[in-house]
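@channel sequence for tomorrow's demo:
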Amino acid sequence: MSITDVTARISQIQAQLALLPGSSSFSSSAVGATGFTDVLSRTSATAGTTVTGGTGAVTGDQVVAKAKEMLGLPYVWGGTDPQRGVDCSGLVQSAYSSLGIELPRLSADQARAGRPVASMSDARPGDLIAWDNSSRNNGADHIAIYVGNGQMIEAPRPGGKVQLVPVTTPPDYIRRVLPDAATSSTVSASTVASARTVPPGTPYADLFQQAASAHGLDPALLAAVARQESGFDPQAVSPAGAQGLMQLMPGTAQGLGVTNPFDPAQAIGGAAQLLDDLMGRFGSTELALAAYNAGPGAVLRYDGIPPYPETQAYVKSIMSRLEVAA
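structure tokens (generated this afternoon):
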């Protein structure tokens, strides 16, 4: 291992760490001005909902096809160049990035992306499978792309090449980054939303219903978030600078196309888009709420609801309201 390789690897790790917001910066509307553009381009795209070129149509077969283009490519430690060489996480990142879906650089972070898959019998082409081979590391240290039929594409080790091989050892992590096509194709957004209504007497009920219908959300969820964030006050401003009914930070609002966060219709529409992205990204209402409150980076870091008292209480409160409204 040369000094140049070590220096390059350190630089890549430092760059990755720089993308992760510190836990102390998260507040009740933590997806803010400096982070939203990155969050929307990296985090939601992982579920095929935030687009850097039509990721909503990305399939597992397309991911596999991109990975197959790198078969025979030399293993290069720290490599991310699909023309010159990649390491295991560079292979994964390059395949997804070529389809407009940005994943973290390190295998440990990639193995926390998306949502868990119960077993290999449930795995689909394009899923990520990863192993924790060393007690010195926190999380996965090797990752591959599942092809189907018990096979995977991996960049195995220094001196090796990207290869298509059988999965011989059960992985420690199986993660699905892409959305479930069956769900999205058979159930329309309007059908999902129309089946639920907001509690009687809820302010801005029509706006919640319209936004929910547009994004396939439960309108009661949007109403519960508004109650928690602002108490239904469209002019609310938090000490951190979050604005309006849904307490959007200025940068968040701008990224969502909300020109006036104090306009209830725009605020609700923007929040619905954000929650839709987060729901697709993390695969559950609880994790989407945690990301709305603490930021997607915190949910990835803790592989679940972060242990912040504010976030824990936030999720619990909203979920309790949803149970009452059901």
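heads up for whoever presents: Confidence is low (pLDDT under 50) at residues 1-56, 182-194.
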